[in-house]
Specification:
207 residues; alpha/beta; globular; 39% helix; 7 helices; Rossmann fold; 6-stranded mixed β-sheet
Length: 207
């Protein structure tokens, strides 16, 4: 089993435009170009395409879906991590949110929830584990393209490469100096070998 996670292309929120509904954030023109480049770059036909329910991710997947029209598409709960209460912070600028963002990550409490519509770090990790379990249940020979979001993909990768850490230790490593941010349209490959997921760094030879 191979799963390639793809972060959505550049979105309007990535360039600082305030949003009022995280699920409806769209791609910029550069993001649309990135989605086309991703679709053109595939060298293998997948057995399944998975996307989050959020618009920017579905827009990123659209060109790949068009290229492989006979491949089934499923929507899974692999949307981005929302850790600030949406009703309070949607529509605000990054500069307004930053002190609260820094405080959230500094306290490193995986069970803390900021309010209605937000989720705790621990809950987000549960969603990431669920995604890996669903992939684990698919046929061993399958290749799956998974279109998701930066922090969610980071969480999936963390579960694979940092499995010995506690949730709090994962959270402390997750954000800020030293964290490995996943870029727009970046791909992260995982392989299931001997019932264990393994992270495949870029430029690793294929089977």
């Amino acid at each position: 089993m191979r799963a390639i996670f793809i972060r959505h292309g550049q979105s309007t929120s990535n360039v600082g435009i305030p949003c009022h509904d995280l699920a409806l954030v769209e791609l910029t023109e550069l993001g649309r170009q990135q989605s086309r480049e991703v679709a053109e770059s595939w060298t293998e036909t997948p057995d399944l395409i998975v996307t989050s329910p959020y618009l920017r991710t579905q827009q990123t997947a659209a060109a790949t879906i068009e290229r492989f029209p006979n491949v089934p598409v499923q929507v899974w709960p692999i949307q981005e991590f929302t850790y600030l209460q949406p009703n309070r912070w949607n529509g605000t600028l990054n500069s307004e949110r930053m002190p609260h963002v820094e405080r959230y990550w500094a306290q490193a409490d995986p069970e803390f929830c900021d309010g209605e519509g937000a989720e705790s770090f621990g809950t987000m990790l549960k969603r990431a584990r669920y995604a890996l379990c669903r992939l684990d249940a698919l046929p061993a020979e399958w290749l799956v393209y998974v279109f998701s979001h930066g922090q969610f993909i980071q969480a999936v990768r963390s579960l694979v490469i940092d499995s010995g850490l506690t949730q709090q230790e994962m959270m402390q490593k997750f954000w800020g100096q030293g964290s490995t941010v996943i870029a727009n349209a970046e791909r992260i490959e995982l392989r299931l070998e001997s019932d264990r997921w393994k992270y495949v760094p870029a430029n690793t030879p294929q089977f």
